Amino acid sequence: MTASKKRIGIVGARGHTGAELIRLVAAHPALELTYVSSRELDGQRVDAHVAEYHGDLCYSSPAHEALPGLDADVVVLALPNGKASLCVEAFNAAGKDPVIVDLSADYRFDNQWYYGLPELTRGKWRGEKRISNPGCYATAIQLSVAPLKDVLAAPPVCFGVSGYSGAGTTPSDKNNPEKLRDNLMPYALTGHMHEKEASRHLGIPVEFMPHVAPHFRGLTVTTNLYLARSLKRDEVQARFQHAYGSEKLVHVLDEAPWVSQIAGKHHAEIGGFAMSTDGKRVVVVATLDNLLKGAATQAMQNINRAIGVDEYASIPV
Ligand SMILES: NC(=O)C1=CN([C@@H]2O[C@H](COP(=O)(O)OP(=O)(O)OC[C@H]3O[C@@H](n4cnc5c(N)ncnc54)[C@H](OP(=O)(O)O)[C@@H]3O)[C@@H](O)[C@H]2O)C=CC1
Ligand SMILES: CC(=O)N[C@@H](CCC(=O)OP(=O)(O)O)C(=O)O
């Protein structure tokens, strides 16, 4: 145990995103795991489930009221939607104010919380210690639309396909390998949470049609954008280069990226830029790993900024 390291607790650490966060923390020079919670794995050694972690820590199952007493400097909530507020209220009631990063959708519409999509909102952070981590598809959508936002003639239309790890570990049709075999499963074709989230944070309406596919991890979003004036492909690409050319975790490609290439990678890829002949329609393709840039890696960027270390600490870039 190193005194100078910040202590981090992960609530909901059995899940896919919790496991990825444990891996990132295990490689972190300035963080040490102080607790990882799971009801199902209570008492079991963490290294038995996450090989990258080396230490003696075991999963525990504290009640939410007990979390403030565990004295972490940083708390990540990796719980299903609707479960974060009990934990947040427990910290408020105890007068404890650690950095809290919520991976769920629960605070993405709350102005008291900083919405942490660093490549787009880095400049808006005012030292908030309550950080709402964006949704996976919502990240891909916003990265795809933002550079063209001022020149749109109509709401962007986004066709999304995710690997089934996006549906978490609670059994459902969307993470049932039998039902997904040879299938592409449409769901929430209007009004998906990430449609609302991306619309809110872009400040323009977007339309989003999600699907889940038989692969485990990685998502692709193909976005159709109608433009108010004719643009050349070079101009479109230049806008994306200007927005992301210096970003370590958003790579702008010429070709449309393939989802098969993004599993296990920490960055997002954006490319394609297929133009209609009149230059007033462009199709952009974005891929990212829903568990990494869509969740754990983005959370780690946000944590790093909040604790004042390099934004990319522990993230392979
Ligand atoms: N999967 C993804 O691609 C992404 C997920 N997210 C969001 O991140 C959060 C975590 O996702 P993910 O890791 O996939 O989820 P999982 O379903 O894989 O894991 C959820 C975790 O919460 C615990 N849990 C489940 N139900 C409850 C409950 N009722 N009360 C307390 N704990 C509970 C589980 O452990 P145990 O049951 O053992 O206590 C588990 O550790 C979700 O809000 C999700 O929407 C965000 C972006 C991408
Ligand atoms: C395939 C699949 O089911 N994906 C999830 C998105 C995962 C995610 O980012 O969820 P939150 O917004 O809840 O954090 C969904 O569509 O709800």
From TrEMBL:
SMART domains: Semialdhyde_dh. The active site is at C136. Coiled coil: none annotated. Keywords: Amino-acid biosynthesis, Arginine biosynthesis, Cytoplasm, NADP, Oxidoreductase. InterPro entries: AGPR, AGPR_AS, AGPR_dimerisation_dom, AGPR_type-1, NAD(P)-bd_dom_sf, Semialdehyde_DH_NAD-bd. Its EC number is 1.2.1.38. It is an enzyme of class 1 (oxidoreductase). Pathway: Amino-acid biosynthesis; L-arginine biosynthesis; N(2)-acetyl-L-ornithine from L-glutamate: step 3/4. It is found in: Cytoplasm. Its main location: cytoplasm. One of its GO terms (molecular function) is N-acetyl-gamma-glutamyl-phosphate reductase activity. Residues 7-128 form the Semialdehyde dehydrogenase NAD-binding domain. SUPFAM superfamilies: Glyceraldehyde-3-phosphate dehydrogenase-like, C-terminal domain, NAD(P)-binding Rossmann-fold domains. It catalyses: N-acetyl-L-glutamate 5-semialdehyde + phosphate + NADP(+) = N-acetyl-L-glutamyl 5-phosphate + NADPH + H(+). It comes from the Bacteria. Belongs to the NAGSA dehydrogenase family. Type 1 subfamily. PANTHER family: N-ACETYL-GAMMA-GLUTAMYL-PHOSPHATE REDUCTASE, CHLOROPLASTIC-RELATED, N-ACETYL-GAMMA-GLUTAMYL-PHOSPHATE REDUCTASE, CHLOROPLASTIC-RELATED-RELATED. HAMAP family: ArgC_type1. Catalyzes the NADPH-dependent reduction of N-acetyl-5-glutamyl phosphate to yield N-acetyl-L-glutamate 5-semialdehyde. This is N-acetyl-gamma-glutamyl-phosphate reductase. It comes from Dyella lipolytica.
